[in-house]
Amino acid sequence: xxxxxxxxxxxxxxxxxxxxFWHLAIKKDIKEEESEPxxxxxxxxxxxxxxxxxxxxxxxxxxxxxxxxxxFAEHSGEVFTEQKLAITKEFSPTGFFDSDVWCRAILDLAIxxxxxxxxxxxxxxxxxDDWTQMQLAAAMxxxxxxxxxxxxxxxxxxxxxxxxxxxxxxDELKEVWNELLPRVKVYExxxxxxxxxxxxxxxxxxxxxxxxxxxxxx
Length: 218
What we know:
Blueprint: H1 8-16, H2 18-27, H3 36-54, H4 66-73, E1 78-87, E2 103-113, E3 116-123, H5 132-144, E4 150-157, E5 162-169, H6 174-193
Parallel strand pairs: 3-4
Antiparallel strand pairs: 1-2, 2-3, 4-5
Helix pairs in contact: 1-2, 3-4
């Protein structure tokens, strides 16, 4: 099997359970039903994309998001919404669907001011202290915009009505690749060898659609 391009969510999906990943993302013989939280997340992301990027009014039931949305929309600098980033295995920028794509990421919002950039991820779930996905996005953004030397990473936790922040320099982004590449290597080896064993986890009992798995319901 040829290697497939990876993203952080795809890598995390594989690591959670290779068997589930195989059925949903590779063989695609099982489809996972969209949950209400997922539908809400899509709605919020689309509404904020239009509000921040084009000035479209938020729907009435989302107007509580206006204070932060207004600040982002009126922030000085270049504003980019829903930016699709892709790179080759040689760490060169490429098209999101080009044949040489190796890694993909999508940024909810990026604001550039000279050699500094603010990257924002809208989160509709519970607060988590894991910056790896955002750091990867920064590392990829740095390859597309080599003039940016310093990044401010923001998680906007929609339900908690708060923002968490982390700063990182371009030089520090090297450590992001050092952390991720061993994990990616395992993912690529699995794809080459078609090795996708079941990995029991807390999702087995109620949230896994792979009903033929021996661990389903455990």
